[in-house]
Amino acid sequence: MRKNIKRGAILSALVVVAFFLVYLALLATAVLEVPEDTVGWLAVLFAGAIFTAIIVGVVLALSQRLKEIDSGEEEDAKKY
Q1: E strand intervals along 15-69
Q2: Cα–Cα separations (whole angstroms), residue 51 to 19, 30, 33, 45, 80
């Protein structure tokens, strides 16, 4: 049972991370078509900083969730 819960948590985190990486790659690709566009590159850098923060947050939340699953807190919550 715990393996299925772990797989779900890992899969959902991977989907979110992949979504943001693909979005950032598409944004960078669009800016690459006009290399002289300084504002475009600033937007990509700004978005990259935000997406990096989101990805780090997702990985930290995943780590915390896996620790909760290992400690059996989920079974404790089913009692209530």
Answers
A1: none
A2: 10, 17, 22, 10, 37
The model carries a pTM of 0.76
Question: In this structure, are residues 13 and 58 in contact, taking their beta carbons and an 8 Å threshold?
Answer: yes
Nearest CA-CA partner of 20 in 53, 42, 64, 66: 53
Record the tokens describing residue 5, joined without a space: 């819960």
Count of residues making up the chain: 80
Q: Would you say 44 and 28 are in contact if contact means Cβ atoms under 8 Å apart?
A: yes
CA dihedral 15, 20, 22, 23 (to 10 degrees): 140
The amino acid that residue 32 corresponds to is L
Per-residue pLDDT reduced to its tens digit, 36-47: 778 888 888 898
% residues pLDDT > 70 (the chain) = 88
